[in-house]
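User: For a benchmark we're assembling, each entry needs the component sequences followed by a predicted structure for the full assembly. Here are entry 17's components. Please fill in the structure.
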Amino acid sequence: MNTTHAPAPATAAVTDLNQLRVACSSCSLRELCLPAGLDAREMERVDRLVNQRRKLRRGEHLYHAGNPLVALYAVRSGFMKSCVLQEDGREQVAGFHMTGDMLGMDAISSGRHMCDTVALEDSELCEIPYSYLEQLSRELPSLQQQLHRIMSREIVRDYGVMMLLGSMKAEERMAAFLLNLSQRFAARGYSSAEFNLRMTREEIGSYLGLKLETISRVLSRFQQDGWIAVRHKHIRIRKADALHQLLGQR
Amino acid sequence: MNTTHAPAPATAAVTDLNQLRVACSSCSLRELCLPAGLDAREMERVDRLVNQRRKLRRGEHLYHAGNPLVALYAVRSGFMKSCVLQEDGREQVAGFHMTGDMLGMDAISSGRHMCDTVALEDSELCEIPYSYLEQLSRELPSLQQQLHRIMSREIVRDYGVMMLLGSMKAEERMAAFLLNLSQRFAARGYSSAEFNLRMTREEIGSYLGLKLETISRVLSRFQQDGWIAVRHKHIRIRKADALHQLLGQR
DNA sequence: CGCACTTTTGAACAGAATCAAGTTTTGTGG
DNA sequence: CCACAAAACTTGATTCTGTTCAAAAGTGCG
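Assistant: Structure for entry 17:
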């Protein structure tokens, strides 16, 4: 067994911290991530598959649109965004990714990434070489299933974003966004009521199809209504019900 | 070999036209569809996998949100739409599907469909039992690859829709929509310059995040500019360049 | 052939964008 | 560790795009 936190044995030739192994089997995210549903023997084989870590400083790219597909990535720690770009330079945030999320599946169709993925804070990722993943998932039906589930989950998530962008007003989009973050933090064992936004108002706006001024105004309005408390990037949800109602009604 | 158009042999006990076999290997869509990239031996095995057809009259559902995942479907002929629904009853078109498109991948993540899929004209679909597909794709690496490519393509398509909904104006959305249809018809051997819309203005509006009146107005404007000719559902693209420019600029 | 649905077009309205100015925060280098 | 510049945020006033409401005309299905 090996973990990031175990000191490197003095006798071993471990020179690169990035390559320190962290077994999936001992990872707290295993139930959210690629190995969900695998038994011990299977997990061991996945451990050997995922043998490379990648560290990114805030602002660094994991990949750019156009880069060839090498690997898929699982977020081990930190926070990322993916942006789609248009010829004319306009850019739109297509998603925010946190711990346990899988990245890079956009590249499978053409062999090249179709978006940019960037760290919004210092982050660590597990690199899953794609060709080995394909191979191993032929041998381990549970792994194959989980991979398919993960890709399908991304498709479903995208449908939700379409709904958001296509038929909600500014306040509804913001409520949906906050509740989504809240729920994802909760699923990871953090508070669902209090968290820090890792992105700027402009990035939220890009994701929600709104301008940054609108984001700012809606947050202020929610605060005045007593539904949330905002201070800079810190959010405290005071009336989750009210936010939910905003979505359910009409 | 067996095709839909061959008369059923009088001696055979073929009673259900829906079950008449049409081999993938003799299907004109094979290069667009699931068997793309397979050799003859592999194709033969996929033929045995896809042994059920399903006919839908215009307006009939292929599946509803909530239905359990049974199969994926390939559009053999006709035209379909998928709609996501919200608790409050609001509904949004998430995609239009034509010949060769694969449907149903939204259900893999949870085992239940997350959208409604409906025929917009009489349509025929190939039913691909999902558990057999999983199994066979473990045995045939090319099939596995193609399945992954298809799911990834759906993710990339969704990114495009997000871009459209999140950062384009009404006219740009409409131009993108028309050009996308045009290009997809062309890929299927039809005219890229002239085609019939299979959906109502309201459905286009729902897909593009606009109201039907806006769709009508934008089409009229395009027509006045001489960029297209619209008569009811019939569209003739006269200046594809102008439409492209509308997207590329700014 | 008629009724329901779809589409077009106009006029008034609303929500979000844009423009603008000022404030706060953050990150960097001295 | 502090000072400063750049980036991020807030708020107000104005503009504009697309929605809503309304009415009339066209289409097509049964």
